[in-house]
Amino acid sequence: MMKSLLPCALAVLSAVCAQANEWHAYYRLTPDAYQKKFDEMVGQGYRLNSVSGYEHDGQPNFAVIFEKKPSAPWQSYSGLSFKAHDEKFNELQAQGYHVAQVNGYTIDDKDYYAAVWDKSPVIAWQSRTGMSESGMQAYFNEYARQGYKLTHLSGYEVANETRFATVWEKANEKAAWWSQANLTSDEYQATFDKLKSEGYQAVDIDGYQVNGTVFYAGIWEKTPSRASITRYDLDSSTFQADFNQYRAQGYVLRTFSGYNVGKDDRYAAIWVKP
Ligand SMILES: *[C@@H]1O[C@H](CO)[C@@H](O)[C@H](O)[C@H]1NC(C)=O
Ligand SMILES: *[C@@H]1O[C@H](CO)[C@@H](O)[C@H](O)[C@H]1NC(C)=O
Ligand SMILES: *[C@@H]1O[C@H](CO)[C@@H](O)[C@H](O)[C@H]1NC(C)=O
Question: Which InterPro entries does this one have (predicted)?
Answer without folding.
Answer: PGH-like_rpt
